[in-house]
Structures are given as structure tokens and as C-alpha cells.
């Protein structure tokens, strides 16, 4: 006979979705546009326990469910919600044009959205002012998700920055498109030729990663990153806040962050904020580096990384950003999600 449950045993509570923070465009999905200072529960637009991914852009948000449905809300002036119009949406609303198409991942850029289906196809919608939709001869904006035809191989990971995007294919190749990093590259690397992937308005192979196989790509405001199957992390783009763990102000090509920065352990997972990064090693250790003036690194730093460099000419030798050194946060060891 099975023992009777003790009255002191905790009763599992139903999963719920909460939102808070800036809400100027209704991106919290609460039905209004007032900023929210404390967590508020969202109405049941889907079963909370079935939410697989949550992500946000410059003023819009997206949720992917376990069943592969996509819900969106918030700023929509360029059609970044993919709903066929450009009106703001204050509640999480299903993207009807994708009904019946299972979604695996969504990446929200500043004013555009990149969508990955479960069969490995990539779609995009929103602003295309900088070629960030990957459709070089397309319109200035797209209000309905359209396939990026030039990505012919199955894609396994996508990322979106301020005005650029990335994709990693099943074979481990990394593509980038959108000209968002080009102006900074020209300014910070005078006299040097920019690689094609920094100026392309269609998916272009990221050179410098030929001897590695990517399993995941990430993007910040003006930087990119790629995690390989060997547990190595490559970064490129702007290093204004030390987010590339380099002395250079801008990296035109991918550069591997040395293993010693992670106590000689392989990287198992990486997350990117707008100007900082977080990595977790195979043993569960969590490292943070990059911009720190808002406490986004979860630790105290001696200098506000990148601030001193803003007063200097970054194109001069020795005047790049303060070196962002990945530091371990023992309290987060073993974290399951960041």
C-alpha cells in the first residue's frame, strides 16, 4: 500500500507568465502602454506551461510555444510583428500568417524579426533599411514574414542585433547579413578593407571560421558571436564595452576568446545582451563580461568598462576600450537558464 502524502508536502503551482519594465509600445502584452515597476501576470493567451522561448527587440516581444506557435506584441511601425499591418499591438497576438508552420526560434532585432522554423527555414519581417532582412532587392520593410531564399541549407540557430543578423547551418557554417556594423568598422579600422559579411545585404559566409563548426550564433547591438562544437567561443564586431574580451576597439574577423579566460574549461552555452555576454562552461560555471554600468554583469567591477575609452580616439594605438575579462560568478554555478 502506498503511503499517504504528508500535508506538509508542497502542492505544485501552475506555471504563469509575468512581465514588467518599459512598456512605451505595449511590448509587455498587458493591454496598455504604461511602464510597469513590479511583475504583473499576463492573461492566458496560451498555456503558460507550454511556453518554449521568450525574446524581445527594440520595442516588440515574441513568444514561441512548445507546439511551435508564435505570439507577438508591441511596436510595429515597420511590420516587425509580421501581422500584415503596422499598428501597435498591446496584447500577445498569434502570427496568423505562420499558422500551421511550426516555429523553433525567434530573434528580435531593433526594428525587425528573424524567424526559424522547425524544418530549418529562416523568415524575416520588419525594417530592411540596412539589409537586415536578408533580401537584398526587397522593399524597405516587410509586414509579413518572407523566406530568406539565399539560406538554402538547413539552419539550426539564428540571432539578431541592432541592424544585423546571423544564422548557423547544420554543417556548422555561419552567415551574417545587414550593414549595421559597417560604419563602426570603417571608423575604428581606418585603411583596412571590411570583409564582405559586414557590408552584405544578403546572407554572406563569415570568414575566419573555416576550421570550426558552429552550433550556435549570438548577436548584441554591434557585435556577433559563435559557439563551436568544440566548446570554443569566437567574437567579432564592436568592443566598445569590452564585450569581446580583447584590447582591440573593433574586430573585423572572428577571434577566439582564450580558454584560460574560462579557467581552461569548454563552453557549453552562451547568451548575449545588448553590450555584454554570459557564458557557462561544461561544469556549470558562469562567466560574465562587457558593459557593467547598470549592474548587468551581476558583480562589481573596478572600472566602468568602455567609459574611459569614449573620451579617447579609439583609432589611435593603445586607446581601445578597457579589456573586458570574463569573471566567474560562483553563485550562478549550475544555473539552468540565463
Strand percent estimate: 35-45%
**Number of E strands:** 22
The main β sheet shows up as:
4 strands, antiparallel
CATH architecture of the largest domain: 7 Propeller
Q: Structural class, please?
A: mainly beta
| Count of runs of 4 or more consecutive helical residues | 2
CATH class of the largest domain: Mainly Beta
CATH level 3 topology of the largest domain: Methylamine Dehydrogenase, Chain H
| Low-pLDDT residue spans | 1-12, 304-323
Oligomerization status of the protein chains: single chain
Question: What's the CATH superfamily of the largest domain, by name?
Answer: Regulator of chromosome condensation 1/beta-lactamase-inhibitor protein II
Q: Could you give the order of strands across the largest sheet? A: 3-4-5-6
Q: How many distinct domains? A: 2
Helix content: under 10%
Protein name: Secretion-regulating guanine nucleotide exchange factor
Subunit structure: Interacts with SEC5. The interaction occurs only in the presence of magnesium or manganese and is stimulated by dCTP or GTP.
InterPro entries: RCC1-like_dom, RCC1/BLIP-II, Reg_chr_condens, Signaling_Regulatory_Domain
Subcellular location: Cytoplasm; Nucleus
Set out the fold topology.
Blueprint: E1 18-21, E2 36-41, E3 51-56, E4 60-65, E5 70-74, E6 89-94, E7 103-108, E8 112-117, E9 122-127, E10 141-147, E11 155-160, E12 165-169, E13 174-177, H1 182-188, H2 196-199, E14 204-205, E15 214-219, E16 223-228, E17 233-238, E18 250-256, E19 267-272, E20 276-281, E21 286-290, E22 327-328
Antiparallel strand pairs: 1-2, 3-4, 4-5, 5-6, 7-8, 8-9, 9-10, 11-12, 12-13, 13-14, 15-16, 16-17, 17-18, 19-20, 20-21, 21-22
Amino acid at each position: 500500500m502506498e503511503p499517504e502524502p504528508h500535508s506538509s508536502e508542497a502542492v505544485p503551482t501552475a506555471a504563469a507568465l509575468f512581465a514588467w519594465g518599459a512598456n512605451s509600445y505595449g511590448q509587455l502584452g498587458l493591454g496598455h502602454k504604461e511602464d510597469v515597476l513590479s511583475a504583473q501576470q499576463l492573461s492566458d493567451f496560451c498555456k503558460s506551461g507550454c511556453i518554449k522561448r521568450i525574446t524581445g527587440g527594440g520595442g516588440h516581444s515574441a513568444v514561441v510555444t512548445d507546439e511551435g506557435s508564435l505570439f507577438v506584441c508591441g511596436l510595429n511601425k515597420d511590420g516587425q510583428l509580421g501581422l500584415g499591418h503596422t499598428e501597435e499591438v498591446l496584447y500577445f497576438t498569434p502570427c496568423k500568417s505562420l499558422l500551421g508552420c511550426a516555429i523553433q526560434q525567434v530573434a528580435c532585432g531593433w526594428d525587425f524579426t528573424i524567424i526559424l522554423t522547425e524544418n530549418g527555414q529562416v523568415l524575416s519581417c520588419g525594417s530592411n533599411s540596412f539589409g537586415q532582412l536578408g533580401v537584398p532587392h526587397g522593399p524597405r520593410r516587410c509586414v509579413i514574414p518572407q523566406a530568406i531564399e539565399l539560406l538554402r541549407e538547413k539552419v539550426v540557430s539564428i540571432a539578431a542585433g541592432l541592424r544585423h543578423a546571423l544564422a548557423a547551418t547544420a554543417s556548422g557554417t555561419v552567415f551574417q547579413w545587414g550593414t549595421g556594423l559597417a560604419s563602426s568598422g570603417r571608423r575604428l579600422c581606418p585603411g583596412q578593407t571590411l570583409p564582405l559579411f559586414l557590408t552584405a545585404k544578403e546572407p554572406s559566409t563569415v570568414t575566419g571560421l573555416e576550421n570550426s563548426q558552429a552550433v550556435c550564433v549570438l548577436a548584441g547591438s554591434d557585435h556577433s558571436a559563435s559557439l563551436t562544437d568544440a566548446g570554443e567561443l569566437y567574437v567579432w564586431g564592436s568592443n566598445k564595452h569590452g564585450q569581446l574580451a580583447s584590447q582591440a576597439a573593433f574586430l573585423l574577423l572572428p577571434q577566439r576568446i582564450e580558454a584560460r579566460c574560462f579557467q581552461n574549461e569548454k563552453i557549453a552555452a552562451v547568451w548575449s545582451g545588448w553590450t555584454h555576454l554570459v557564458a557557462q562552461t561544461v561544469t556549470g560555471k558562469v562567466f560574465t563580461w562587457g558593459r557593467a554600468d547598470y549592474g548587468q554583469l551581476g558583480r562589481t567591477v573596478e572600472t566602468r568598462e568602455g567609459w574611459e575609452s569614449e573620451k579617447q580616439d579609439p583609432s589611435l594605438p593603445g586607446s581601445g576600450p578597457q579589456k573586458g575579462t570574463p569573471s566567474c560568478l560562483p553563485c550562478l554555478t549550475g544555473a539552468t537558464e540565463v
